[in-house]
Amino acid sequence: MAEREEAATAPDPDYTGFIHNVKQSTGIDLAQYKEAQMKRRLTTLRMKNGYQSFSDFFAAMMKDKALFYEFLDRMTINVSEFWRNPNRWEVLRDVILPELQRSGSRLKLWSAACSTGEEPYTLAMILSDKNILAQTGILATDIDDGALAKAKQGLYLERSLKDVPKDVAGRYFTPEGPVFRVSDGLKKNIDFRKQNLLLDKFDEGFDLIICRNVMIYFTEEAKNKLYHKFSASLRPGGYLFVGSTEQIFTPAQYGFESTETFFYRKK
């Protein structure tokens, strides 16, 4: 039994080499992600595309842009919905934003790891309904060019809209056959950019940073690094909004205090 367990946890030089090559070529550090989850996901992708080893898969990925984008999609789990966990967005609308508005200055907001855009567009809908969208800056970033392209295009299947209040959906989406197009009024107020959260330097002075359902894929070391970076990027009194499975158990070590559930204010 002990021998079998040791074999199961022994380093895999093929996968270790893949991690090294990806970091050298792209700056993406897969070692910062939980290994069992990431390796399982990428093994499925490799085998689906007919490659016997990760070294062969990497070589093909570097030559085939479509395969590389498929790798990014699988790595970053681009699954999202508008108004995901609606009651948390209601807290943002009814409690957090009014508090932030009291400063009287232009709000600076960031949707980090925005995937295909559902999150920043949800934020834009709320701001538009409060008549402050045009006076607010929204940055939306992701590591995946393919996801960003979809976000900028703004076309979504009906299932992505299942939690959007019907009156809100009617104001901001236009049906086009089997898909729905988000309004240009929302699009023009969001700045979509490519960014590697672990590697790149962050801007500062944000009133609100939204980073939801992403941290669960990172190692504890990577999470710790990111929470410190997010804290440094917020102005005092600014908020970090995290996902429903990403509670920060010791927020004070990052300069945060817990207020509403899954909202952390910088002291």
TrEMBL record:
Entry EC no(s): 2.1.1.80
Domain of life: Bacteria
Domain CheR-type methyltransferase positions: 3-267
UniProt GO MF annotations: protein-glutamate O-methyltransferase activity
GO BP terms in the entry: methylation
Catalysed transformations (reactions): L-glutamyl-[protein] + S-adenosyl-L-methionine = [protein]-L-glutamate 5-O-methyl ester + S-adenosyl-L-homocysteine
Name this polypeptide is given: protein-glutamate O-methyltransferase
SUPFAM superfamilies registered for this protein in UniProt: Chemotaxis receptor methyltransferase CheR, N-terminal domain, S-adenosyl-L-methionine-dependent methyltransferases
Pfam families reported for this sequence: CheR, CheR_N
Family annotation (Gene3D superfamilies): Chemotaxis receptor methyltransferase CheR, N-terminal domain, Vaccinia Virus protein VP39
InterPro entries from the UniProt entry: Bact_Chemotaxis_MeTrfase, CheR_C, CheR_MeTrfase, CheR_N, CheR_N_sf, SAM-dependent_MTases_sf
Keywords attached to this entry: Methyltransferase, S-adenosyl-L-methionine, Transferase
Record PANTHER family: CHEMOTAXIS PROTEIN METHYLTRANSFERASE (PTHR24422)
